[in-house]
Design goal:
The chain is an all-beta fold. The protein contains no helices and 23 strands.
Length: 294
């Protein structure tokens, strides 16, 4: 404004002229976005994507993306290849014009259940930048195992046991393997000892039953110990014991020392089970000399 003072102390100023100028300051501006799944399981690969966009009104000459991995994440790989400095992953990017973007990816495995937050920042060569984080809930499976079967058995008679493995956790249990280790008095049809059974993946709340047949070869208390393992250090164990017996037959035959030709002769045959279990389908065979006719 151009103002002329008044002629005296009481006169008002007179505006002669005015002019207004507007100046707009322009600069590049980075927006960073980080994407990851909301839920993942322990031992599962988690994909991360980082997208950096120039939302400013002029181009930037380039910059750096830095991602800092938490202790509970183990790096699997990056695309494109990042430079690793301790827990930090670094990517350099070239000029970005207004509206242009650059994207990088990384994958990591969660080693523990809980909440994991992974943050990244983008800084341009001009000095300013931005930061973004992604939070994932890491869930885990929880194995339980049980083995059921009879409490008694007989030598030589196959026994069927049931193994039940259950995932009681909130996440899947992957690569589940069940191992049955049994005392030497028990024999599997394959001859293997112990026996391993591949279960695979158990969803949360899922249970799988596995029959196994063992044949006792000796008497006494025989036990088998069953265990389950899965990715992420998941484990469970159980034991089942059975008392093995066998029948023990004895036989005796009595009769007179002398007899009269043509007269009947009585003999007494006694069969006794002196064992601790039932003897089934017992057959007695008596072979008489030619001089005796039944």
């Amino acid at each position: 404004e151009v103002v002329r003072p008044g002629d005296n102390a009481t006169a008002k100023e007179i505006k002669i002229a005015c002019h207004e100028t507007t100046k707009t300051w322009v600069a590049p501006q980075l927006l960073i976005q980080k994407m990851a799944p909301a839920v993942a399981a322990v031992g599962q690969q988690i994909p991360y994507q980082i997208v950096v966009t120039n939302t400013g009104s002029i181009g930037t000459s380039g910059g750096t993306i830095r991602d800092t991995l938490p202790e509970s994440l183990r790096l699997v790989g990056t695309q494109p290849m990042a430079t690793q400095q301790g827990p930090n992953l670094l990517w350099n990017f070239g000029p970005l014009q207004p509206g242009q973007s650059v994207a990088v990816q990384l994958s990591a495995i969660a080693t523990a259940a809980g909440t994991v937050t992974n943050c990244a920042e983008a800084v341009m060569a001009e000095g300013s930048g931005n930061r973004a984080c992604a939070t994932t809930q890491i869930v885990s499976g929880a194995l339980a195992i049980a083995k059921t079967g009879p409490t008694t058995g007989v030598v030589g008679m196959p026994i069927t046991f049931q193994i039940t493995v259950t995932n009681q956790g909130a996440g899947p249990a992957s690569n589940v393997i069940v191992t049955d280790a049994f005392d030497p008095g028990l024999v599997h049809e394959t001859g293997s000892a112990p026996v391993q059974l591949q279960v695979g993946v158990l969803a949360p709340g899922e249970a799988r039953s596995l029959p196994i047949v063992l044949t006792p070869k000796m008497t006494g208390r025989l036990c088998n110990r069953v265990s389950a393992q899965a990715d992420g250090g998941l484990a469970a164990a159980a034991e089942h014991c059975i008392e093995i017996t066998k029948p023990m037959l004895s036989i005796s035959k009595t009769g007179p020392q002398f007899a009269i030709v043509g007269a009947p002769v009585d003999f007494q045959i006694v069969v006794k089970n002196e064992g601790s279990t039932l003897a089934s389908n017992v057959l007695v065979r008596d072979q008489s000399p030619a001089q005796l006719q039944p």
